[in-house]
Amino acid sequence: MAKDMTLYWGAGSPPCWRVMIALEEKDLRGYNSHQLSFEKMEHKSKRVLDINPRGQLPTFHDGQLVINESCAVCIYLESNFKKQGNELIPTCPNEQALMYQRVFEAVPLGQKLGDVIYYEWKFPEGERHESAKERNKNAVALELSLWERYLKQTGPFLAGKTFSLADVVVFPNIAYAFYYGLCPERFPKLAQYYNLLKERPSIKKTWPPNWEVKKDLLKELPKTS
Amino acid sequence: MAKDMTLYWGAGSPPCWRVMIALEEKDLRGYNSHQLSFEKMEHKSKRVLDINPRGQLPTFHDGQLVINESCAVCIYLESNFKKQGNELIPTCPNEQALMYQRVFEAVPLGQKLGDVIYYEWKFPEGERHESAKERNKNAVALELSLWERYLKQTGPFLAGKTFSLADVVVFPNIAYAFYYGLCPERFPKLAQYYNLLKERPSIKKTWPPNWEVKKDLLKELPKTS
User: Fold this and answer.
1) Which of A9, A85, A198, B95 could hold A16 in an S-S bridge, CB 3.0 to 4.6 Å?
2) Spatial distance between the Cα atoms of A137 and A135, rounded to a whole number of angstroms
3) First-to-last C-alpha distance (Å) of chain B
C-alpha cells in the first residue's frame, strides 16, 4: 500500500512534518520519500507545479490520487487505514468535535507564528515597521497563551487523554515555536507537551534533519494580560 | 435536537454563514439563533468571550458542547446527523479526499480575500503601502484563477457532481468575492457556480441580511499570466 504513495517534502516545514507523522502513526512505511530544498526553490520546480499548482510542500500522491493539503492528507490516511496503526480520530462525538476544533485552530497558530518568523521575508525593506513587528509578537504571545490554557484544561494531549489527529497537526507548530526559542518557563504546559511528544516514536523518527541549531526569534515575547 | 443548539453569528461573515448553511442542509431548524453586531463589537462582549476566548463568531453550542471553529462545527453536524438531511461527506475515498483538500484550501482563499478587503483595518495609517496593496491584489487574482480552474476540472460543485461540505465551506467566500465586486466575465466558472448555488434553498434562506448594496473593492484585479 505505502509503496504506491509518494511524498515530496521540505525539512522543517510543519505541514510536511504532519504528513510524515501521520504516515508513521498509520504504520505506512516504505513510501517514496523525496526531500526537496526550499533554499534551492525546488518547491517551485516544474515537477512540483505539475502536481500542485500552488507550488507548495507537502505534495502527496497515492497512485493517481493527488492531495496537496497537509491536513487533508492526514484525514485521508486515517479514513482509509482506520484499523491500521493508531486510530487518530476519536469516536466519542464530543472528543471528536474538540479534536477537529483544534485541527482548524492550527491555522491561526501557524499564521501568527509565521507573521513573526517570516516577517522580513514577507515584507520588502521599505514596508517594514517596528510597530507591526511588535503587534505580531503580541498576537503570537496571546495565541500561545491560549494553547497553554487548552493544555491546562484537557492535557496531556490536545483533545484529551489520547494522542489524536489534533496532535499530529498541531505538534509541529508547537515544536517550531520551541525551535525558534520559545521560553519553556513562560509556557510550562506547552513545554511539558513538547517534551512528552518529542519522545514519541513517530515524531522522533521524523524529526526535522536541519534543526540542530536553535534560533531565538521567539525568545522575548511581550507580557499578555 | 436543534432546540439544544445555539448559534451566535454576525451578518455577512463567511465562517458564520457556513454553519448556517450546514444547519439547513442537515434539516436542523429551530436552533437558538443570536445575531450579534460586529459594528457594536458584540463579538468581543463578555457573553461571547466566556464561550470563545478568541472573541470571534461563529460560536456554537450543542447542550454543554462548545465548538467555535466554523469548519469543525460543519463536520460535527455531518458526523452526528449523517442520515438526516443531505449527506455532505462523500463516501468514495477519492471524492472525500478532494473534498477535504478544498475545505482546507478555503484557508488561503479567505486569507487572501481578507488581505485586500480588510487592508485598512489591519494596518494603521502609517504602515500602509501601495506596493503591498498591489501585491495583495495580485495574490487574490492568482488565488481566484486557481479556483476558476478547479471548477473547470471538476464542476459543477467543488468536489465533483454532488454538493458537499466543500461547497458549504467555500461558497460563502466565493459569494463574498462577488459581493465585493468580482467581475463575472473575468471568472466565468466562478460566476456560474455562484449563480447555481445562490438559488439553493439552504443558501437562499441564510443569505446575509446586510448585502443589498454591492461594493467594488475587487472589481479591478491585475492580469495573471
Assistant:
1) A9
2) 5
3) 51
Asked if A146 and A75 sit in the same domain, the reply is no
CA-nearest residue to A73 within chain B is B97
Number of separate domains in chain B: 2
Could you tell me if A58 and A99 lie in one domain? no
Decide: A175 and A110 in contact? Cβ < 8 Å: no
The cell numbers describing A156, all together, are 496531556
pLDDT band for position B224 (cuts 50, 70, 90): confident
Residue A113 and residue A21 share a domain:
no
Question: What does the longest C-alpha to C-alpha distance in chain A come to?
Answer: 54
Same domain, B198 and B173: yes
**How distant is the Cα of A194 from the closest Cα of chain B, in angstroms?**
23
List the CATH number of the domain containing B76.
Answer: 3.40.30.10
Phi, psi (degrees; rounded to nearest 5) at A119: -55, -50
Roughly what angle, to the nearest 10 degrees, separates helices B93-117 and B130-154? 160
CA distances from A122 to A119, A126, A175, B11, B76 (A): 5, 12, 22, 32, 35
Question: Is A221 within the bounds of a domain?
Answer: no
Cβ–Cβ below 8 Å for A126 and B126: no
From chain A, the residues in CB contact with B98 under 8 A are 67
Sheet arrangement for strand B32-36 = B32-36, B5-10, B59-62, B65-67
By Cβ distance, the residue of B53, B98, B104 closest to A71 is: B104
Residue B88 lies in a domain: no
Q: How far apart are CA B42 and CA B59, in angstroms?
A: 12
> In B, residues 156-195, which contact A (CB 8 Å cutoff)?
none
Q: Are B28 and B85 in contact (CB under 8 A)?
A: yes
Residues of A in contact with B68 (CB under 8 A): 101
Each of the 225 residues of chain A gets a pLDDT tens digit; together they read 799 999 999 999 999 999 999 999 999 999 999 999 999 999 999 999 999 999 999 999 999 999 999 999 999 999 999 999 999 999 999 999 999 999 999 999 999 999 999 999 999 999 999 999 999 999 999 999 999 999 999 889 999 999 999 999 999 999 999 999 999 999 999 999 999 999 999 999 999 988 877 788 888 898 886
Whole-angstrom distance, CA of residue B216 vs CA of residue B222: 14
Q: Domain with B195 in it: what CATH number?
A: 1.20.1050.10
Does B115 share its domain with B68? no
